[in-house]
Design a protein that fits this description.
single chain, alpha/beta, five-stranded antiparallel beta sheet, elongated
Length: about 375
């Protein structure tokens, strides 16, 4: 399959070569023929005839983001309330979701954003392909036959458009697919937005163009390589892009609150890549929290009693109690048997400390988060 696919691409290139000879232009003639940049579709991101990659980890909400992008262009609204768009007809080709699921998502976004329904009906078209996916070269040929005046075409998700037997890690094959997109974009005068997933593992230590699963040619062939990565603050993300026909854009912070993504005023700080030591500490913390909660159950125990039950040292118990402080309550008591004061802890859902307690309490009830 790979050989037949590449043979077809080679044949197409040969036809192009035979169709016309090389025609260099002088500097003045070249400037006269191309005096202006192409028309902007999304300010700072995309122009007419360009291809844009939108890259993020799996299941973070790329499809919600891209559908909102398509509706923004269709209605001429700012994308994310920030990027100006040129209104025009949009085609969303989705090969991951069942039509019913996709319809519900689009309805949720439209209601949340209050996009004008009449404008969407005129400018936003949907082509669901789950269950009857076709490879990109075949789709490209059919797009030309549609005769629609599209401003933007969104392909979600790219990996399912790759021809059978072709690896997304094959630089030559991926370059050929992007050449196909480029040729269709030129003929239709539209832009392509390609939705693709990042590779597994942390992405924060990579350069922008290194983010994304598959061959490196995928980021080099596109005009804009837009990536979404984990923010230092949990629940947020950093969006940044390598662009070709615009001045470099500043990274921004965004967050997802169902069903849409929005901009945030947070500084766009990427999450710090985890070291092996960080990963070990994370595993230890998870074990510590689980064992302390298991030891407490419905009991009220002091730190020394928790050390006995878990087998952990003092510092690990102190750290563990701090990690789960939002789940605990504590109280200082005087042990009847020894007369010594001690702080006992219990899980909030376990009831008041007085339930079954035989100690004399000397202080008022307080939460562990008070830090006392």
């Amino acid at each position: 399959m790979i050989d037949s696919f590449l043979d077809a691409v080679a044949a197409g290139l040969e036809q192009q070569e035979q169709a016309g000879k090389l025609k260099p232009r002088s500097f003045r003639q070249f400037r006269k023929d191309f005096p202006f940049l192409r028309s902007v579709i999304v300010e700072g991101i995309c122009r007419e005839g360009e291809t844009v990659n939108i890259i993020a980890a799996s299941k973070v909400g790329k499809s919600w983001l891209s559908a909102d992008l398509g509706m923004s262009i269709a209605t001429g609204r700012k994308w994310l309330g920030h990027f100006e768009t040129r209104p025009g007809k949009v085609l969303l080709i989705d090969n991951e979701l069942h039509p019913e699921t996709l319809s519900k998502r689009l309805d949720d976004i439209q209601r949340e954003r209050n996009y004008d329904l009449d404008t969407l009906d005129e400018n936003f078209e949907i082509l669901p392909m789950r269950g009857h996916v076709e490879a990109l070269p075949r789709i490209a040929a059919q797009l030309e036959d549609l005769g629609r005046d599209y401003t933007a075409i969104i392909l979600d998700a790219f990996y399912r458009f790759v021809p059978s037997g072709v690896s997304e890690n094959d630089n030559q094959a991926m370059m050929s697919l992007y050449n196909t997109l480029d040729a269709v974009a030129q003929k239709l005068g539209c832009a392509f937005f390609v939705i693709h997933h990042a590779s597994k593992g942390t992405q924060t230590g990579k350069s922008i163009t290194d983010v994304g699963a598959g061959a490196g040619s995928m980021s080099r062939a596109t005009d804009t390589h837009l990536v979404i990565r984990e923010h230092q603050e949990r629940g947020y993300a950093v969006m940044e892009a390598a662009v070709r026909s615009f001045a470099p854009i500043e990274p921004i912070s965004i967050y997802y609150k169902h069903p849409v993504w929005s901009m945030s005023e947070l500084d766009p700080q990427l999450a710090t890549p985890q070291t092996q030591a960080d990963k070990r500490q994370e595993r230890n913390d998870a074990e510590t929290k689980a064992k302390i909660l298991e030891a407490l159950g419905t009991a009220k125990l002091s730190a020394s009693q928790l050390r006995t039950k878990t087998g952990f040292g003092e510092s690990r118990i102190v750290r563990g109690l701090d990690l789960i402080k939002d789940k605990l309550q504590s109280r200082t008591v005087r042990r009847k048997r020894t007369g010594k004061r001690a702080e006992v802890f219990w899980i909030k859902e376990s009831g008041d400390c007085t339930d079954g307690c035989t100690d004399d309490c000397t202080d008022k009830l307080r939460t562990f988060s008070d830090g006392k």
